[in-house]
Amino acid sequence: MQSLRVCWYKSVYMTARFLASPAIGRKLQYTYDIVIPKHTPYMVFSNHTTLWDHLMIGMAVKGHMFYVAGEHLFRKKSTRFIGAFLLDPIIRKKGAPAGEVIRDIKERLGAGNNVWMSPEGVRSINGETAFISPGTGKLVKECGELGAALITYRMHGGYLRRPRWGKTPRDGKMWGEFVHEYSPDELKGMTVDQINEAINRDLYVNTFDDQKKNPLPYTGTDLAEYLETILYICPECKQMGKLHSKGDILSCECGYSVKFNEFGLFEPASGHPLHHDNIVSWDHWQRDLIKESLPAYLTTPKDVPIESDEGQILGKIGALKSVEDLGTGKFSIYVDRLEFDGDKGKFVFPFADIEGFAFSLQMKILFSLHDGTYYEVESKIPRSAAKYMVLYRFLIGKEYK
What we know:
The protein has helices spanning 4-27, 53-60, 77-86, 99-110, 135-145, 158-161, 184-188, 192-203, 207-213, 279-292, 294-298, 386-395, and strands at residues 30-32, 42-46, 66-70, 90-92, 115-117, 149-156, 174-182, 243-246, 249-252, 257-260, 266-268, 307-317, 323-333, 337-342, 345-350, 354-360, 364-369, 374-379. It is an alpha/beta fold. The protein has a seven-stranded mixed beta sheet with strand order 1-7-6-2-5-3-4, sandwiched between helices. Strands 15-14-13-12-18-17-16 form a seven-stranded antiparallel beta sheet, with helices on one face. A four-stranded antiparallel beta sheet has the order 8-9-10-11, with no helix packed on it. The termini are far apart. The mean pLDDT is 90. It is built from twelve helices and 18 strands.
């Protein structure tokens, strides 16, 4: 028998779903496959393209679900109170170990409740489904042993309607596609590798493949602004941090420039050849360039930063999600550490002390230390958090996919 607390969450969820679904569908130009699960409890996995994904999945899949959500969404006391009162989400700290979240998911499923999460852990950075940790398959396998099914669902169109890097929203279509429901018995008969393969296959979306097959317009203003937060190396001069955006133009200090059109593709805007016609291609190229440059980075003198930005704000995140301001200044990545030199002092974070590293929203960098302390770096100017993530991963000897 469900507790009164869970019954309350279910009643809130179902009432909101009934009242809000028609309006949300019209507002977001969202059409979707409806899923009536054959097994309960179940997990729903979807790719992650917008801040509305939980709403759109809730419209598409019948039945109440608890959501896995990033802690950065619940920093304000009012938001935290409303979330706890109405939804009771499973809170995930980005850039921190996932053990607590895994335990909470298993507890909810073990009690007969359903759970939604995006196994990517982040909204799509470049329009392509992001890396999914191999540990996801192990989690699903263990949950299958608890009697939970897995439903996979693909979201399309959200990336170009509201790109996570974008300064402004756009108008355009979104749609949801049911892929598969894996019963507990199916999951029990699959290896962890087979489950991971199925999840990656089922959730994979490349926005620009979609656009080339069926071009749809996503209209708005200032379509290219803040693109330099994810595209950080110029393909013409190969310099990092020299790209700037204005209106629908992304340009480099070397003179290279491209136009980002309403179909989400690049057009030449200078006398130079077009190196990449879409964000995914450009992003893969710049990651590969960093990987190729790794031997040179590793020989950089320890007192010379590999990359840095001024106008950064360092914060220490407290136990109650409060943020202590540690100053404004220069944030740098060196061959063996992160460093912040600000108006309230200098802070050094050796790679050996870092437990996890991530980024969220447009430009927020998040990292945790082995001792449990948790930090964020905000920016006063458009700058890429992704470049620091990629550099960090390669410098500590790990791939970035």
